[in-house]
Amino acid sequence: MKLWGGRFRKETDSLVNDFNSSIQFDCRLYREDIEGSIAHARMLADCGIISREDQESIKAGLEGILADIEAENIAFTADNEDIHMNVEALLTERIGDAGKRLHTARSRNDQVAVDLRLYLRRELGEVAGQVLDLQQAILDQAKQHQSTVMPGYTHLQRAQPISFAQHLLAYGEQLKRDVTRLEDCKKRMNICPLGSGALAGTTYPIDRWETAELLGFDAPCSNSLDGVSDRDYALELLGDLSILMMHLSRFAEEVILWCSWEFKFIELDDAYSTGSSIMPQKKNPDVAELVRGKTGRVYGDLMGLLTAMKGLPLAYNKDMQEDKEPVFDAIDTVKMCLPVFTGMIATMKVLPANMRRAAGGGFINATDCADYLTRKGMPFRDAYTAVGNLVYYCTENGKLLEELSLEELQNISPLFGEDVYEALRLEACMGQRRSWGGPAVEETSRQIEELTAFIKEHRHE
Prior knowledge:
The chain is mostly helical.
């Protein structure tokens, strides 16, 4: 008979039993379930609700079950539906009546809620650590390429000269926000639902603050209905992971472009590339492409849970069993993507000459030419028009701005002097951009220092 079977007189249909069961995916919560049960039993004993002898027996029995699970000596069964009832059934089988007292002042509703929070809290920290690893790989590459000139793009059109370091550090900034979002999510997640019961708390004189403290939570949740029906923390985490994957996908798209023959700004390491089954010359950026593709999968996990939750009345509904698979899938996907993406970035070979060659075309020093005239006294809008005329002249005559003679330049404006050629040199254009956050070496050095400090600080939180 099932643990909840007292009111029933017929066995559950086998199809319903399989349909209702969640043990095939929530079995990964075994450690958290046992941890929560040990804390619950300790609180029950401290409050005089169960004997100290029963509490010690429960604790020893649960620790034995944990050891056996981790030694792969236990096979879970769908007859007991979920991880909570599997563990409780095993405990009762091993220690008798004391095991039956564990569920006093508790429901599966608050039990699963605390298990999931404990699990996600730990996983969240692991994901944040992997993001920091990626930031370190970015940092290591950026340090080597502060003077590497490349074209910056808007609309995928060459726009202005920047350094490869600045481009990489932009992703470092995005990942900073990802780390702090995960940390903020952890703060809101760190409230304990245990003791909420099925929805209305309990008549037993429990101490929810003790349970929260034993499990490392900041406080118990303030409302028992909210405690068992809230999945905001799971949705918030899925949202954070979706934004993180969006950042990885954007980065992946650039890696795919950069390693194409049309760009050839980088070459991926053989260990992070694959070949073609028919074209022997191919070196495919499959890691980047898979990360780009798996981003949609994580988005789907978020949309799935949002949809499952959108029409649910308080408090618990069985629909909420659908929270675990998308959350587990998203975490597994992100944790699979981050290490390989980090390895790909850490081992890629940068080709500065190709970047510089690309930067030489597309008139990306045109804004600097306008700034030159502005410094000579011409209003910027007039300078903008004058340089636009120069660019038109160049395109008609197959020249670059820096290839024009002084006479050609002065035909547009007499303000041009010999010093314009230094102003148009790409390295000078980049080096003069010393405004906060710009590509000048002194500015990327500051950004590198900030990112270094960020990684160090958040490694120890």
